[in-house]
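Annotated sample (chain length 361).
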Amino acid sequence: MTLERTPLYAEHLALGARLVPFAGFEMPLSYAGILLEHEAVRRRAGLFDLSHMAQFELRGPGVGAWADRLTVNWVSTMPPGGARYNLFCNDEGGTHDDVIFYRAAERWLLVCNAANGRKMWTLLTAARSDGVDLDDLRGRAALVALQGPRSLEILRRVTRDDPGALRYYSCRPMTVSGRRALVARTGYTGEDGFELFLTAEDAVAVWRSVLAAGHPEGLEPAGLGARDILRLEAGMPLYGNELTEEISPLQAGLGWAVKFEKPIFTGRAALARQAEKNDFLRIAGVVMEGKAVPRPGYAVLREGEIVGEVRSGSIGPSLGRNIATVLVRPEVTQPGTRLSIRIRGVEHAARVVPLPFYKRG
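Output written by the structure step:
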């Protein structure tokens, strides 16, 4: 299968990135090293190419009410300049995708996971109603994420606007490095940061300008390897791991996003039944007692009995312990519960802890 490339592909080659297949794209796994890039984001700043993410533009007077019927969280109540996490569910309550809606003045931007781009476009177009216009921006749009405690001062060097005026989960048009962008104070790392939505034609100029502006602050280009560890430490779900067509938002610990006060949305009845019974498998966090690294699919046990499986696992540099999310029976999710994870036939001790594993100061 031929892999797609983002507008920044040549930049990644020039920076010596290690490229790997991901969601149908050839993407940078790392540049100087995963741990170095992780440390840069936690202490200084990192710059990510997220142009593989699916971007859809929504216009028309009916967008808010229409999207409310398809998603678990409110869309119609979003003010201009707002951003909101949301999920599309199937009739059984499983998750089609977790997404973010951004509301600019005259349009909405919907950002979906790259691997779900085709699925979500098919769903949106099949469900489209009068008063809603859809535009698929894939191939024409780019996305660059500047993340880390020094991201604000770096971004200020390449714009005359005031990114500091943006609240967390808000957005506004700005001029960045002389190019128009929708800038949002959102991210997937657990750190403060910004996501810059651009045209494909402007991506290279902005990428180079931000890297140059951030060089004195220790900014590093960062790849998928560091991003996955950062999001796991921050307790953020990855579609295909903590969320799937079979795993609901309630199971993933995202019940805060499910607004049962909405009278109609896809999956509402199934989610209401699940919430009432409250006996479902659910996501919990565990830290390993030793040096073993848990990986997805490994069995989770309590006193020799299998009670679930690992969904994501990694080293946790910010904690100094190896960590995992597990999908387990509800009776073993209490923090402090002793479990074990079977790795190549050997059981390794683990302990349940609250999520997220890491919170910035």
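Annotation: The two ends are 44 Å apart (CA to CA).
Annotation: The chain has a mean pLDDT of 98.
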